[in-house]
């Protein structure tokens, strides 16, 4: 009974907080037109409203994991959630696009602290591997529901309260999460040997600078031109800092990212295909948000409803992914999902956006279903492909890759829209690239995963690997 009383607040706190973190990656898309009207921002500024959050989130996930092991999951969780709450309030009252972007970046910092901490809290609160795996599955599934419902929730809030409410609504939810976690005192877990050494500050700085420069290059290229000295210099600096990051990680005795993880084909394949999946999916969401409102004249609420064919398929895929994996194996299922996504992107090219909405909406469920199948299956296969002592680092790299893919997807899609005379032309180019990348990702996964079993050769450690 005592254990149950301690577990319930942790379950609610971690689930609700993770939902708002994921919700904020997609809820803003339906508010872009209102933000542009009220705060006078162009497409590049709107891109940064979206990408500032995912950029800082992706860049600091590994840092959040390292700090969790050093300072304790409960402390970092509360710190992260408090940071997220304060940043959300700041965004809600931001008087300009520039300050809104700053607030979004701080939101990403809070998210990067609380996501690894919430997983560690689950690990500490559910010592039984089977129960812990079930809770982690629920935690991941709720994140999928939040991501899928973002456009509709955002549309309803904007319609009845105003665009600032999409940020202010986070504040009471964060305070509730802090209150729930303060009711329990989970034991602090022991530092994991893989990341318990000296903090890799140089590697973290190099990773952040490289990622920021890459996004600056992609976002600014339509304005300056791809051959301009500014963009060439930015890309050169991106390459230099990326090489510096690899050099730092290769020479340190306690690197933030042990590079030998990438010698495992299954791990490397999962990282790359997860990045591609996020790149294409979040790029599409950004395109659709502008298409529905700017070219088709939809209101925010109508835009949220227009997203439904895409978003309702996401929870459905999460619900059936385990059963389908057991039947087909991760190799065939993920390849099939990427082919399904590619078919959806190519089909959308033919109808977007001049045909009736009913016809336009037909390919959207296929894309949503594919995305919802790829994420849990690649996560499970990845955790089974690494040693138990490195499962936490592997999870951090995988999640960072997904968030990085989301950042680059929005940046690239916005650049394509800005480089064409109409949203339709830019979107068709974006869809063509998304379809081709999906097909390539399916081929990479087929080659990388040597086994078509659910957990490969490491089945005996699957429950622990999910939550270590």
UniProtKB/TrEMBL annotation:
Membrane-protein topology: Multi-pass membrane protein
Keyword Zinc assigned: no
Domain Major facilitator superfamily (MFS) profile: 10-453
PANTHER family named among the record's database cross-references: MAJOR FACILITATOR SUPERFAMILY MULTIDRUG TRANSPORTER MFSC
Protein name listed in UniProt: MFS transporter
Main location per the UniProt record: membrane
Location in or out of the cell: Membrane
GO molecular function per UniProt: transmembrane transporter activity
TM ranges: 12-32, 44-64, 76-99, 134-154, 160-181, 201-224, 230-248, 269-292, 298-321, 333-352, 358-384, 405-423, 429-446
InterPro entries: MFS, MFS_dom, MFS_trans_sf
Pfam families xref list: MFS_1 (PF07690)
Alphabetical keyword list: Membrane, Transmembrane, Transmembrane helix, Transport
GO cellular component, one term: membrane
Organism, as annotated: Paraburkholderia sprentiae WSM5005
């Amino acid at each position: 009974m005592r254990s149950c009383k301690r577990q319930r607040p942790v379950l609610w706190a971690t689930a609700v907080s993770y939902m708002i973190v994921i919700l904020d990656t997609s809820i803003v898309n339906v508010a872009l037109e209102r933000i542009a009207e009220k705060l006078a921002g162009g497409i590049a500024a709107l891109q940064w409203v979206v990408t500032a959050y995912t950029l800082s989130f992706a860049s600091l996930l590994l840092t959040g994991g390292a700090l969790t092991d050093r300072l304790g999951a409960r402390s970092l969780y509360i710190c992260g959630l408090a940071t997220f709450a304060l940043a959300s309030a700041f965004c809600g009252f931001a008087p300009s696009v520039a300050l809104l972007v700053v607030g979004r970046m701080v939101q990403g910092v809070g998210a990067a602290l609380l996501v690894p901490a919430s997983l560690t809290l689950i690990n500490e609160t559910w010592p039984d591997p089977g129960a812990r795996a079930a809770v982690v599955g629920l935690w991941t599934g709720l994140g999928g529901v939040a991501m899928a419902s973002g456009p509709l929730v955002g549309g309803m809030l904007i319609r009845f309260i105003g665009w600032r409410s999409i940020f202010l609504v986070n504040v009471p939810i964060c305070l509730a999460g802090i209150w729930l976690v303060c009711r329990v005192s989970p034991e602090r877990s022991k530092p994991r040997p893989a990341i318990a050494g000296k903090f890799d500050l140089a590697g973290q700085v190099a990773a952040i600078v490289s990622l920021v420069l890459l996004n600056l290059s992609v976002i600014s290229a339509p304005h300056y031109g791809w051959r301009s000295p500014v963009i060439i210099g930015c890309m050169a600096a991106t390459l230099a800092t990326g090489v510096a990051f690899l050099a730092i990680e290769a020479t340190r005795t306690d690197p933030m990212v042990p590079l030998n993880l990438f010698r495992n084909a299954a791990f490397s394949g999962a990282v790359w295909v997860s990045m591609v999946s996020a790149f294409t999916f979040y790029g599409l969401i950004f395109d659709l948000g502008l298409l529905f409102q700017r070219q088709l004249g939809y209101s925010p609420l109508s835009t949220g409803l227009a997203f439904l064919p895409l978003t309702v398929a996401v929870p459905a895929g999460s619900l059936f992914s385990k059963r389908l994996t057991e039947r087909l194996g991760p190799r065939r299922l993920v390849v099939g999902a990427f082919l399904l996504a590619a078919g959806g992107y190519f089909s959308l090219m033919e109808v977007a956006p001049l045909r009736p909405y009913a016809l336009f909406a037909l390919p959207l469920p296929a894309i949503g279903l594919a995305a919802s199948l790829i994420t849990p299956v690649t996560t499970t296969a990845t955790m089974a492909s690494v040693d138990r002592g490195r499962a936490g680092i592997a999870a951090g790299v995988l999640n960072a890759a997904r968030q990085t893919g989301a950042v680059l997807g929005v940046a690239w899609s916005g650049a394509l829209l800005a480089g064409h005379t109409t949203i339709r032309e830019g979107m068709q180019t974006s869809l063509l690239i998304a379809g081709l990348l999906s097909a390539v990702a399916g081929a990479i996964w087929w080659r990388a995963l040597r086994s078509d079993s659910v957990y490969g050769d490491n089945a005996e450690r699957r429950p622990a690997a999910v939550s270590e």
